TrEMBL record, chain A:
InterPro entries according to UniProt: Bact_Polyamine_Transport (IPR051789), MetI-like (IPR000515), MetI-like_sf (IPR035906)
Main location: membrane
Classification via Pfam families: BPD_transp_1
Gene3D superfamilies from the UniProt entry: MetI-like
Record-annotated membrane-spanning stretches: 7-27, 64-84, 96-118, 124-145, 174-195, 226-248
Keyword annotations of the record: Cell membrane, Membrane, Transmembrane, Transmembrane helix, Transport
Family: Belongs to the binding-protein-dependent transport system permease family. CysTW subfamily.
Name assigned to this protein: ABC transporter permease
Keyword Transmembrane attributed: yes
Membrane topology annotation: Multi-pass membrane protein
Amino acid sequence: MILLRIVVFAIMAFLLAPIVIIILFSFHATPALTFPFTGFSWRWYAQVFTDSQLGAALVESMKIAFWTALLTLVLGTGASLAWLRLKRRGRAVIEILGITPIALPGLFLGVALLVLFAQLGISLSTVTIVIAHVLLTLPILLVAMKARLTLFDPSLEEAARDLGASQRQTFARVTLPLIAPTLISCAILALAISFDEFVLTSFVAGTETTLPMYIWSMMRRTVTPLINAISTLALLFSILVLVVAAVVGRMRRAAAVADRTKS
Amino acid sequence: MLAVTPIIEITAGQKSFGSMQVLHDIDLAITPGEIVTLLGPSGCGKTTLMRLIAGFEDMSGGGLRIDGRDMKGIAPEHRPVNMVFQRYALFPHLDVFENVAFGLKVKGLRGGELRERVQRMLKIVQLDNLANRYIDELSGGQCQRVALARALVNEPKVLLLDEPLAALDLKIRQLMLEEMKRIHAETKATFVYVTHDQDEAMILSDRIVLMDRGRIVQVDRPEVMYAHPRTLFAAKFLGETNLFEGRIVGEGPEGLVVHTEGGVTFTVRAEAPSRGPEVVVSIRPESFSFDPATGDGRHSVSGRVEDIVFTGSRSFYTVALQNQRRIRVQVQRSAKHRMPARGAEVALFWDHDDVAVLPIN
Amino acid sequence: MLSAGKRMGVVLATPAVFYLLVFFVAPGLLLFVYSFWTSVAFRIVPDFVLSNYIGSLTSPLFLRVTLNAITIGLSTAAIVLVLAIPVAYYLVYVAKSKLILYAILITWFSSYLVRIYAWRTLLGTNGLINTVLINLGVIDEPVKAFLFSAFAVAITLVHIYLPFAILLIVSTFSEIKQDLIDAARDLGTSFLGGFFRVIAPNAVNGLLGAFMLTFILVAGDYVTPQMLGGASGQTTGLLIADQFRKTGNWPLGAAEAFLMFLVSLAVYFGMLWLCRMTGISVKRRPLEKRRAVR
């Protein structure tokens, strides 16, 4: 047991150490990325916020992440609700189509989409990047939803109908609220995946530059704490998104109770 | 029964799933305000019958009227009935208050009246102090009360209950049965109660609808069904009984005379089954007695006590007759009489009013 | 009512199904068609030739980089599995530590490129590991071999794909109740015995799934080997990517992509077969063919 604990903590240290060091050296006063640590400075962060190219890439990435999450949410919600209503064969179609892309590397999806866009004469742009990203995020949503939906008790929908709710009311008041938390957390996950996606993007981006592509071009040229600073901010962003998701989930519950005691 | 318009009336009801017919020729009329139990083994069609009434399944044939209105093509949300689901189907994303308020809210009720009605209902089921709890913060018994309140707050003409106590343990089950009787008295709704548990059925019901393999076998008050089962199935399903295969040999001044395989002759005050003369005689364990005063001591058989199970107020005896045929006897503890011990030779007495004669299947 | 629900289901599924047909199935098929076309003077010409496949399979370069990709994939997936199991086991059965779970989530959410970058700075000649080792007096001069080696590639890939594998295995273990381990211990197995006799056989499908997913992702990952592997860093993925981005011979790239896909399938069935042969995964025999026990 003690041995297991030591092993687990060693593995966790291995996972966290590089990230901690990246963050640490983002505050380094000199461009060197080695010990001894020669003093704290915010200079790299200042540089991040004055780099206009970087800013443009960041905006581009956020735009793509937003649309990817939205499209994933819309398509995924439809497919999830359909899954609940369909019988075995219909479900199989959704599952096979929706889940296989996970088992293919981004490279494969990237070149396939590139060929499609070339054949159809679609020029590469922000839109093609979003289309590609949804191909990664929709399957993840569907896998997570499938696990959630198999636990969904169909008698809840029947109970709502029995209590006088129409089909639409049942959907709005029972089905949707029940699956919404999973849908939302999947959409947030989609946001994060899209924000970080690199390989697939590199095939369908055309002349667009996303944040990962910008980091990539910088990384190839040089090693500088500026990259550490960008990385730290990106990580902070991801954590923020996760925290927001958790807080929103908790707040809804409190709000319901508060509403009633007030009125 | 009085000549009141039935609240539920099913005539020649049929239901098939594909080629499987699960309900045959259902004729049933339920009087307003009564508690009716649909009782039967699993797969007898009782749950399907309830789902037909609720509107979750369409009838394959026959008619269904609720409160005088034909229910053909009427969606579940437009029927004046509400259901308590087997595993409650309480909404996990809503708290107790919101669960109970659900039906009223979708009907458009808001504000003070909504709050008042929900709170009144929560008081009836004694949950007014738990209104802010979520479902996963409740015990099984509490969930049960929420499910009842959620249905009853809509003031349904009929409350349908689908094995509502199946998920509870024995102690709470008895408590909830009494609770349900109290709530029924308070709300005066009609209860249609599905169960496979004969005890629940007998404690709760005004009438029992006994079902077997998609058909209604017998509809009667619990005490009548217990004392006068009309079929072998009814006798076996409701309570414990001793069955003797036999043959009607004649009719005396006191009733039918039946010779049975145990070598015992029974006299039965009843009409002979239409199919005869081969019959089965049924006599409940508690109808036997060691007291010669029972039934004037005219009907008796002797045997030897093989086994005694003592459960407090009652004792269960296994008595072996000469031909090794065993009889189950249940006797009330009594200070007056000394109870026979294991191995004792005894005589068993019974009153011929307590004997039922049934057709062989 | 039922049929109305079903019709509603079809309507709701249509957008997603349509999307996947157009942007997943169609491109896949098109890529397959492309793999039989030819590229003449940078122009792609519809054709039906097997030369792309034959050319790839007889090219020493292709065979070498594919073998490299498979080696990297298998070894990384194996290491990932070995490391992920104890962590997942710990999280599910020993201590349901929220802190560790969050730490895993954060690593998983931290950027792919950043992690490559991190290991690059850590392993470089002026990198942290070399500096620390020199200061400690373990080595006299920086070890160049840390970076641009199979070792650097492996450690980075493990770091990138371990968190996801842990999460997958946690969900597999979660379906196996603690009672089973307790029962096994009660019946006299050791701690490890309980794992191998009870948990592993019940989790084998989930573990195999985690292994295969890691393998596919790692074998297809050409960026990490390219950045950290130096001369040893060329894999099939890079070859394919270059066909599309530099050389412009798309049909050849398409054929190579499908060969890569076939290799993944072969590895999957190979693993399945291995699990059956070694008895880790049990295929139930038909009832009537089972050995009678008296």
